[in-house]
Amino acid sequence: MPNPRLTGLGSGLFCTVVMFLLGCLDALLFGASMTTYGVLFLPVCVLTALWVREGDLLTAPVVLPIAFTLGLFPVADGKAGVLARLVGVFTGLATQAGWLYSGTLVAWVVVLVRRVSWVRGRRRT
């Protein structure tokens, strides 16, 4: 399994691009299913928290809600212009808050476990 180490900015770009592409794929294949989008968000959270480097660990849970929001644009239910799309994004954020909170919580747990093990490893040396 690859073991990349992303910077804080790199992890933000990674999860934002992946969530936007998954949103486009969800809209294309599954008819913009919000549940599918939420389920696809969870592995992105775990990968982002695992692949960020130790010095930037605390940035991973911060960029995930931003990536979730930007990835909602292709899935949002706005058919008549920009304002309708924004209303669809805000509606998606309100109705899919459980997926957003779950993914962010999973990322926080992974980050905290990695941070504790990193600090313990530094104390030993």
From TrEMBL:
The chain crosses the membrane at residues 12-30, 36-52, 57-76, 82-113. Residues 5-118 form the DUF6542 domain. PROSITE patterns: PROKAR_LIPOPROTEIN. Keywords: Membrane, Transmembrane, Transmembrane helix. InterPro entries: DUF6542. Pfam families: DUF6542. This is DUF6542 domain-containing protein.
